[in-house]
């Protein structure tokens, strides 16, 4: 028998215990994941929410492929993160684009299948049908039954089980209902309330005259009112004896007379929302001014917060200033307080009747600025509040960036005879902008969509007098204007239009951001020449 060399190790079996254990755990975990995913896909597809069903199915398939293919082994550890990113990030973006191409909004909140399922639950009382008051009975823990009292003649009683209906003659008129009847026990009020949901889904009595529960008090010979006919793609109304065809342009079921059912469904309408937005009367006036103010607000906010933050960072960098740590701690207080609270406090300080700032002007014999009435002063107040909220962030960022600049560069510049302004302009600022540039772009993007500040300060006010019926204010930015245009003015929610406006805002922000990246690329080239 051949013996192994001293340095030769025995070959490990391809399917040893550890490998089998790992494969077993992997397959069991994937089986549980697939079972949950199949349940969700079935539930979403049954309700007609195909976009979610497809998304869950695709993500589950990708996770399975990653965990079953050996060449994709490194991706197994990040597959949960990839799945969550697809579900929480990629899907909302795609879904927003999808919604912008639909009529999704008040009156059209459900899919077509969900509307059909809801209409199938509607009942009506056919001509000649009887109505009863009901009490719930139960046979042990099993079948339910109804004790029925004629609504028109309270002395006539009936007992309806699942498949039988009979009159009750063995009870005196006006007497209490029997606690037990034919083996069925009368349920207490609490028991009946808990079991009413299950009982409402049942049909009592004989097949030729079925009895159903219509409300908490009434039961009767009710029948299903709406029946969907797939061959006609229409809903038949038995009460009106009318056929309502599906109209995919309006998302409504309509009959030949032009009448519609109360509940509409979501349907694709193409670029209609974008056309509505472009052709809106808001485009000629308010939208142009709001877009200009949005750009100006974002740029002014970034410039002011950066300049003030850099100023404090430069001052606190000087070692001759005493108690620098205490000053730095006090200066970052606005950053530690939630922005919503800070805006509310500033709003109170600027209040024309009780605010400390207007009262200070009055005490000096001056007219207090109309921070909530005049458009110019309202914009100034917003910029002032945003400066208070934003400068601590840039102070911290600039302090870290300044500390990373080599001191020997300043020493060399002093040897060349440079003064403080030359060192700041030629060394500090270029090196600082390279490090802070991406954060400036991020700050611009944040302020471009700073809905909380605008809404909390004065809800976009003061209103534009020439905006007509369009709900627009002088301090509205695009995102707050989109919110009011889609949901304000008493017109109800219009998610399709809101999504279309969101896509337009996204395109604008993306364009401005790409332009800013070109500027920061120039800063990097400048810093390389320093």
| Counted beta strands | 14
Spans where pLDDT lies below 50 across 5 or more residues: 1-10
Named CATH architecture of the largest domain: Orthogonal Bundle
Q: What share of the residues lie within helices?
A: 40-55%
Percent range for β-strand residues = 5-15%
Multimerization status: single chain
For the record, the count of structural domains works out to 3
N-to-C span: 75 Å
Alpha-beta content class: alpha+beta
CATH class of the largest domain: Mainly Alpha
Q: What is the residue-mean pLDDT, rounded to a whole number?
A: 84
Could you give me the name of the CATH homologous superfamily of the largest domain? MetI-like
Put simply, the count of helices is: 17
Q: What general outline do the C-alpha atoms trace?
A: elongated
Main sheet makeup:
8 strands, antiparallel
CATH fold topology of the largest domain: MetI-like fold
Backbone CA Rg? 35 Å
């Amino acid at each position: 028998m051949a013996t192994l060399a001293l340095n030769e190790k025995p070959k490990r079996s391809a399917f040893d215990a550890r490998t089998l254990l790992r494969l077993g755990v992997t397959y069991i975990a994937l089986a549980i994941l697939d079972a949950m995913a199949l349940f969700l896909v079935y539930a979403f597809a049954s309700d007609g929410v195909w976009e979610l069903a497809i998304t869950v199915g695709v993500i589950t398939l990708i996770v399975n492929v990653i965990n079953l293919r050996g060449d994709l082994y490194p991706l197994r550890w990040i597959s949960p993160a990839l799945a969550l990113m697809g579900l929480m990030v990629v899907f909302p973006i795609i879904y927003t684009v999808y919604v912008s191409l639909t009529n999704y909004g008040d009156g059209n909140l459900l899919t077509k299948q969900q509307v059909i399922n809801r209409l199938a639950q509607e009942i009506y009382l056919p001509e000649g049908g009887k109505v009863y008051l009901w009490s719930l009975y139960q046979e042990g823990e099993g079948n339910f039954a109804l004790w029925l009292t004629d609504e028109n003649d309270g002395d006539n009683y009936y007992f309806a089980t699942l498949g039988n209906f009979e009159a009750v003659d063995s009870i005196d008129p006006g007497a209490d209902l029997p606690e037990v009847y034919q083996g069925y026990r009368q349920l207490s009020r609490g028991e009946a309330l808990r079991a009413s949901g299950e009982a409402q889904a049942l049909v009592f009595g004989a097949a030729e005259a079925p009895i159903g529960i219509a409300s908490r008090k009434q039961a009767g010979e009710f029948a299903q009112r709406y029946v969907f006919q797939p061959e006609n793609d229409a809903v038949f109304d038995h009460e009106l004896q009318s056929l309502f065809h599906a109209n995919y342009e309006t998302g409504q079921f309509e009959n030949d007379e032009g009448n519609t059912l109360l509940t509409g469904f979501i349907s694709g309408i193409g670029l209609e929302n974008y056309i509505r937005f472009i052709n809106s009367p808001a485009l000629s006036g308010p939208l142009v001014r709001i877009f200009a103010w949005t750009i100006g607000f974002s740029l002014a906010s970034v410039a002011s917060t950066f300049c003030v933050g850099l100023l404090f960072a430069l001052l606190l960098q000087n070692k001759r200033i005493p108690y620098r740590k205490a000053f730095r701690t006090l200066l970052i207080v606005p950053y530690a307080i939630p922005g919503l609270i800070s805006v509310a406090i500033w709003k109170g300080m600027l209040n024309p009747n009780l605010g400390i700032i207007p009262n200070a002007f009055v005490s000096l014999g001056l007219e207090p600025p109309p921070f909530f009435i005049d458009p110019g002063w309202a914009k100034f107040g917003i910029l002032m509040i945003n400066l208070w909220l934003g400068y601590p962030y840039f102070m911290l960022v600039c302090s870290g960036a300044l500390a990373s600049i080599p001191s020997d560069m300043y020493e060399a510049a002093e040897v060349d005879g440079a003064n403080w302004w030359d060192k700041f302009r030629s060394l500090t600022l270029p090196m600082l902008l390279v490090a802070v540039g991406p954060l400036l772009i991020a700050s611009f993007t944040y302020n471009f969509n700073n809905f909380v500040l605008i809404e909390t300060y004065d809800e976009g006010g003061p209103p534009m007098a020439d905006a007509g019926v369009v709900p627009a204010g002088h301090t509205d930015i695009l995102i707050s204007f989109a919110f009011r245009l889609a949901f304000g003015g008493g017109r109800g929610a219009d998610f399709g239009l809101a999504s279309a406006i969101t896509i337009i805002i996204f395109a604008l922000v993306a364009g401005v951001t790409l332009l800013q990246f070109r500027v920061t690329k120039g800063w990097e080239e400048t810093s390389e020449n320093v």
